[in-house]
Amino acid sequence: MSRRKEIVTILKDPQIGERVTVKGWVRAFRNNKFVALNDGSCFKTLQVVIDSDVISEDIIKRVGFHACIAVTGKLLESQGAGQAVELQADSIEILGETDLSTYPLQSKKQSMEFLREKAHLRMRTNTFSAVFRIRHAVAFAINKYFNDKGYYYLHTPIITGSDAEGAGEMFRVSTLDPKGAPIAEDGSIDWKQDFFGKQTNLTVSGQLQAEIGALALGKVYTFGPTFRAENSNTSRHLAEFWMIEPEVAFFDIFDDMDLAEDFVKYLINYCLDNYPDDLAFLDSRIEEMEKNMKKELRRPMGLIDTLKFVVENDFERITYTDAINLLRSSKPYKKGKFEYDVEWGIDLQSEHERWLVEKKFKKPVIVRDYPKDIKAFYMRMNDDDKTVAAMDVLFPGIGEVIGGSQREERLDKLTKRMQEMDIPEEELSWYLDLRKFGGTPHSGFGLGFERIILFITGMGNIRDVIPFPRTPGNAEF
Ligand code: 4AD
Ligand code: MG
Fold it and tell me: Among 181, 214, 359, 388, which is disulfide-ready with 176 (CB 3.0 to 4.6 Å)?
């Protein structure tokens, strides 16, 4: 047998006349003669030509949709349109047959919901293989961006004793037996006897520990899984998702916004430059889906045009107070079309964010200076004593992709805020120490990894951009 070559290598630099072996899965089989073979190495398939004088009928019969085969043959210039090279098969070995009578993916038009239940097979489809190659691309680009700029990758803990966001939406980590947990004198569960000698949970954010890193290494980032036990059954929420959190000493909120904008544009550009085939397919997929939709329901631009538009234009920057004023003078507000009321102090709802991004500015918007009462304890108080130096980056079709802030570096203001919000100082004494010993202004943000993948791939549901989604009621695979 000749050397196995990956399809990506063959297509990049076809060596006409070379004898090769390729291994992969059959994406299509036409006229008992033409196989579109994909091995996952790239979006494109290699055309394999089967001559019934050379390959036995028995073998040809077993070359079915999504069967796994090895083909040895000669690379020839292709006569057909759409490819420069094809593989004329000398021999075919069936590595794994697919029984189409029971194969769940035998029809090509399965719904996304159905495919989610078949997460062990969905990666064989064009759509999901493209999505997961893009997911890899973005993960790689994240590390490249920060490394090139001199940031250090800090691994923050997954099991923690603190609730960084103060939202109380945490998964408990415990080895105590729920039936016979030890009881303390006051009748509550005696967590001192638990594995870590205290209550612990899965982290909701690596930020507080990233601040430790920033105040020693200057510029750091975390990139890891985060967990939120919020009962949100939406197309934008996961119970287990990945977050990228840079944290930078000496940065104020404006430096933070500049970093956020530059960073997401870099990630999008990286995909445009390096994964054109996958993006072109995802683009055409949406176009196909929207073909029969009413014009108002279609996206205003194709996927690739949208991505280019976002990298080529400045994000709009407004304050929360401006946002509220704009919303209150908007048509949908005046006509009573918003489901939620708009007044200063509310948390912006998705319908409000989408109006700002999709209707008013028609581009990504960074909203800053939110009311202190709707934001976390660590955000830096502004001089008005009502708002904090927080910023959210809002994207079309998605809403919030980034949430960040300048951190409160003034010890007295921080402890006052913690008291007001009932956050026990003992548990965060180390966090306060960062203010007592060599503290300085610093800022950071969190980018929701799956949310940016959702945007770049144009997929409609966050469960379709993570290999094995965890959501309320669902932890299969
Ligand atoms: O806005 P969040 O809650 O911010 C933080 O956790 C800060 N500690 C970040 C920081 O300043 N270092 O979350 C950050 C981002 C959101 O903007 C959103 O994109 C994503 O994380 N996110 C979720 N993604 C998927 N599923 C969920 N349940 C998410 N919750 C937040
Ligand atoms: Mg947020």
Answer: 181
